[in-house]
Amino acid sequence: MENTNPNITARTRKVTNKMSDIAGLHLCEGCRKVNEERIKTLTNYEEEGLLVAIKQLEEKMANEVRCLTQMMEKVTFREEMLKEQMREQTNLKNSLNEVKNQVAKEEEMTKKWNEVVKENESFSWKADKEKVLQLLKEITDENLEKEVSNVFRLGKRVNDQKPRPILIKLGNLTTKNLILENCFKLRRSKSFNGVYINHDLIKLDRDICKQLLDDKKKKIAEKDDINNWIFKIKGQPELNLFLDASDLKYDLIVINEVNSKNVENSSWNINEFNLPGYSYLVSNFCKASCRGIMLYYKINLQLFSVQLDSIFDEYLCARINVRDQNLNLMVIYRSPNSSNDNNDNLIGVLNEFGQTSDPSVKVIKDLGTKTWIIQDIYINRNKC
What we know:
By secondary structure, the chain is of the alpha+beta class. 44% of the residues lie in helices and 16% in strands. It has helices at residues 6-23, 29-112, 128-140, 173-182, 203-221, 236-245, 340-354, and strands spanning 114-118, 148-153, 166-170, 196-199, 252-256, 278-283, 293-298, 302-305, 315-322, 325-332, 365-366, 371-374. Keywords: Coiled coil.
């Protein structure tokens, strides 16, 4: 193979001349040409070997690159599989949480149908269900045997301990509301005077009530000895529980006797009585000589307070605009020990209310001794 590269030829000649000079020999032109040809042949062999080695190195590097690429593809594939597994785990976790929430809601709804009956230490029941049915019949005047699905005591039985509370499982909310509306009659009962009835609260409700009690105790402890006080959860928490348990949505809610009897209420904050989704009107709030009235109404209603000239104090009058018509509403509190003069003033405020420009009256259903609720407001032009 003849090499036409002039650089290689020149280099070969130079090497040959240098070798001749080192050896102290002066070669003839023919010998020099022979040496040049041999060196040229060796050089060509070396270059071919280098090219082959370079080509092999390039192929090796290409193989390594292919291996690395395949490894990267495998890593990417595994990453995608891992992400897919993580997505599946997230979806599974979300599904599990949804199931847990659904179970909690069902448990909450079940508990809302239940009542917890507690008895005093001096009273015990041998036949719990019969006594429960007897109690319910006494306060409701109805036989609720078909509505009571189960009756059992809570907690473990321990000797020399207070009687355990009894849980009553009911078939519907209507029965529960009926019982709660009439449980005040237990105070006048000869057989069940030491028994009281409460909601069967879920854990969240118990935590809320506990927090309310703790906050109130801390507030009172700053000014007085809490041992002089008895703490109970009443009022708005029970109203919230009732509204949550009810399938109906109420437009108006009226509460009488907002102020506690013979208790100084001047430190109360009206914001403590907020009810989600409702605005309110109040009369004689935190006024020691009055019991107080509160009217909750849906925030989308057009409702205005109306002042009358009567000297009767314990009333709340409002005007509601419904479909471009006015509905006049009055709430009155009259003490059972009302005097004759107060009764005359009551007649006067009723007469004044009846002479309003639009004497439309809405019939209110009595749900208990202190609370009235109105659903689906409408205009009634007829006399009641």
